[in-house]
């Protein structure tokens, strides 16, 4: 009885879609490209927006609310705008924190100077903190891994640190880690606070939700521009951009976790006589612990990814060296650095997840030694390795104490090995790679790109808004239309079309690969587990990393960018397909098998439709991933929105452009996100899930 | 069972409700004041309001157990939540030990909950990150008691509910019945005067439920709290209650002793409810005993006048001689012959002894 009804509804939608496509094609071919034809391109009515933002920001920074500040250099009071003073004090506070951690890890005197003076340090030779020996940091991470999970995590952590140390990347790696160690806790605290506030007040939630949506679809680059304008260039600006970037997922997960706390648990807290604070900190947050800790994991991973990209505004560390290597096309060196970043990512990910899973053991043996053995061991290790490093000082005469730190040019380097590999690949496959790339560019990419650029704005609106209407009715049409209108009224419509072309190309291929691979792997539980593990691992790599191998293969071309996009964006498509298919109830399988359906039929008729909503969420992720990668692809020379954001970074008045461009990217993402979520929700309703 | 209830009327009730209303919805207050106390659930529904509690008035005295009974959605939990002020009643007056609940400030309310009230929840509502002992000690620690003191008291409670040896388990390592024992222990840790239980045994298997009911009766025998107990299971209500309130669509249809509810239902709804209830489960020996004619006629068996017919029927019927009925002090107050018992057990339903 129900079957024909659905079929009919399906048919009307198909017809609507067909009509839309026909109108789209008609408009496409009928509207003539011309500067003055508003059906072809809308006038850039909000092209002034960036200037407005610039003026506003410079007013804030230079004229808004001047206050008197004492300047020790001229020994007098001086007027200074309040915002500038605020950002300046934030900057120095953040910088100080980074410095402390950095100097603890790799040594230095600036922290000591802060508390005393340069003279004091000059006069007292002992007033120098040498930094922790790498041997100690290595064994301490191993110990941490062991406590949190066991021997496996301990060996992973140990090997990773060992690799970083003996390949001479110790100093930049510790610089990156120090940035993460500052940014992550701050993000965590801010995220937790806002999550709690949003939970307590629906008004706050209503304000935060759209902001979070935009924040999570803004490309990383657009965070760099405002950070640079307000906080200058350097580690502190990088850290602040990182903090702003990593906070939204924390807010979201905190809110999600708190909302999941069963109402009866809250009531039981109230009946135990909790006041508001006790309820929050002793009932709600502990009960939501798991989600909040997953948030911590997200924060750490986001921080690392951003810490690498923050090298654009002068954050020191692995990212900075990687950027240099990429700019001078030293692919071997870039690979080596990339591996270090990946190792840090994997270790931090595993450590924080293990921490999230660890249940506090309140009632373990309570004598002093068994409760504090690891602290004692830690102190012992510090003592032992310091002595070893000290003795080492007498052995290594050339001035490098390998037992203390392995300087970057003295480590074992695989650069030459990698470079040789790269050269070999290029020598052997140069012509076939180049031929493939050229073929792709000339016969596929350029035609698609031109087709996109040849779209009249009216046709685009008709297509997108009609699809919106078909999927989610009138409201969806208005929502996506609004996003589109903003972009169409800026002067970057053509750039946005190029971004859209690269993203759609990447998404289509990624989705095909991801859904196919996912479906195949979902047939066996072993393959599913394996592929999920692979996805997990690849997902921890900061997106930046994916550019390294593709440059090696295809050089600085669109092929490179698109290859990176496809590899990166296939991860969520695969993961969600596997998860979706695996969660189809076994009873349904059995029922299908009983009615004599073969495997392929079962897949097409039962599993795929059932898993469809979840797979759609995967495609949604795929779009966001692809969009981000396309933007980062600006590094290897694209000519889309990303490239303009990158340009804004080196422009003194870049903030207006940077933010507006970031919004354009975010709106593309949000439009796609809106459509797919609505679609998935409708499908879910139809399936009665 | 602590059968004081209606007989032992005290000067002031522990809980007193006067025309309590709870309406959910945006313009609930306006609708209610417009209705002049005549709330019609359907009419309100049309206006987008849901009636939770509709004009509830009753008194509950010290040591008494009131069981609130009704189908799911009839407003039992809402009534309970109004009295514990987990939700605020839309109108009406609620007094706890003579002081007005609805005008209490936050501080007073917290004090009240910390010292006078305990509550047990259907889904146990234990804190997942705390052990049995810590869960039970939680209200004490919230009150600000020292850790040693709280743990010592919590340990007593662990023993009281029969969980000794499991105090260091986490809730997820316990069965449903055990988890609810923790919930009960936690609600009793601060020695409250008033004990709220919202379908405490509904999530448990029938066998465990029976066991928990026995355990509950044992505890009440020792502790003698003032109890508001919510259930949708009539058998449970009959087993436990001093008085039963039957709710339907937020209205208390009848509030009386189990025997009176079964014997003289106030409304058609209550009558339908009680139709199939076996009399022997409700009636006490007292209600069918004869005056004593001759003490020498009596056999050796003695039964209490307060015990339910069901619980003594077998032993009474296995006796050849007349059975003596005694009161609380052991004095013989009546006799019981087999015929009467048989009539209750198998006689026609309309026969009101
Ligand atoms: N927070 C609430 N908001 C709106 N309606 C509610 C709320 N809580 C309960 N209700 C409604 O009040 C009525 C009584 O619910 P409840 O007291 O939970 O019933 P019971 O406990 O007897 O099953 C139900 O119709 C329910 O839908
Ligand atoms: Mg209920």
List the helices and strands and how they pair.
The complex is a heterodimer of chains A (689) and B (353).
Chain A (H helix, E strand, L loop, with lengths): L1 H29 L18 H14 L3 E6 L4 E6 H25 L3 H6 L2 H6 L10 H15 L2 H16 L3 H31 L1 H16 L2 H12 L3 H26 L2 H9 L4 H12 L1 H21 L8 H10 L3 H27 L10 H28 L19 H39 L3 H33 L3 H29 L3 H16 L6 H8 L3 H25 L3 H9 L4 H34 L8 H9 L4 H34 L2
Antiparallel strand pairs in A: 1-2
Chain B lengths: L14 E10 L3 H8 L5 H6 L3 E11 L4 E6 L5 H8 L7 E6 L2 E2 L5 H10 L1 E4 L11 H12 L3 H14 L15 H13 L5 E5 L7 H18 L2 E6 L2 H7 L2 E6 L2 E6 L1 H6 L4 H7 L23 E7 L4 H9 L4 E5 L5 E5 L1 H9 L7
Parallel strand pairs in B: 3-8, 3-9, 6-7, 7-8, 11-12
Antiparallel strand pairs in B: 1-2, 1-4, 4-5, 9-10, 12-13
Helix pairs in contact in B: 5-6, 5-7, 6-7, 12-13
Bound molecules: adenosine-5'-diphosphate and magnesium ion.
The site of magnesium ion (MG) has 3 residues of chain B, from helix 3.
